[in-house]
């Protein structure tokens, strides 16, 4: 018995136009870690709109938005510039209006900028017993935090953005300048160096040359905010200056 089989081939046009059905359940969650990391690398840096959107999405605070956004105008503070960037982003993407609430810890500064006014108050109270005209500010920030912030800043921030430490010190200086009279903030040859420890929110005074008014001078003093008051920490240098090392760094004018 002979059996005949007939096949009807698709034309070339029919083959290439045949639709490919996609799985309706496929979504972003099915992407592999490699694909996700690739997408992350493709996120443009600020000041592009997509870069600003990503900064807002990950919970960046207003100060860091202003510091990294590349849009700050001369007359603006970092916080004002950051608020402006956030408003522009949320106008386009309203679902990001609660991003800061959902991600309350800023990935760049870990909310240090929110403590800048408090740190300025501590410095102001700590130097109030002394007569000085030249003050220098410094900050002690953990190395791993500095390195992490630098990596993220170079990846997502605008070129030329301030580093974490220099930006924080500048904001604290702005708060202090509103209150200080007759005191100039300098970068070298200070009478007093106020060193801020961001982990403990304390300030250590390194006194180089100073006149004390009503308070015995000491070569080093640590101040911290406790229950709304500024108290000297235990272990302050004894007030007997006769036993001090009168090196250039520890000279006093009493």
What does this structure look like?
It is a single chain. By secondary structure, this protein is of the alpha/beta class. The chain folds into 2 domains: 44-107, no CATH class; 113-142 and 152-250, no CATH class. It is 35% helix and 14% strand. It is built from 9 helices and 8 strands. The protein has helices spanning 12-17, 33-41, 49-57, 62-68, 78-92, 99-102, 116-127, 143-156, 164-177, and strands at 130-131, 134-140, 184-185, 192-197, 202-207, 211-212, 220-226, 229-232. The strands form 2 sheets. The protein has a 6-stranded mixed sheet. Strand 7 and strand 8 form a beta hairpin. Helix 3 (49-57) packs across helix 5 (78-92), helix 4 (62-68) crosses helix 5 (78-92) and helix 7 packs across helix 9. The longest helix has 15 residues, at 78-92. It is elongated. The chain starts with 11 loop residues before the first helix and ends in a 22-residue tail after the last strand. The model is unreliable at 1-40, 214-219 and 223-254 (pLDDT under 50).
Q: What is the number of independent domains?
A: 2
- Note the overall shape: elongated
Radius of gyration: 29 Å
Strand order of the largest sheet: 3-2-4-5-7-8
Span between termini: 125 Å
Question: What structural category arises from helix and sheet content?
Answer: alpha/beta
Q: H/E series, N to C?
A: HHHHHHHEEHHEEEEEE
Fraction of helical residues: 25-40%
Number of separate helices: 9
Give the overall pLDDT as a whole number: 77
Strand content: 5-15%
Q: How many strand units?
A: 8
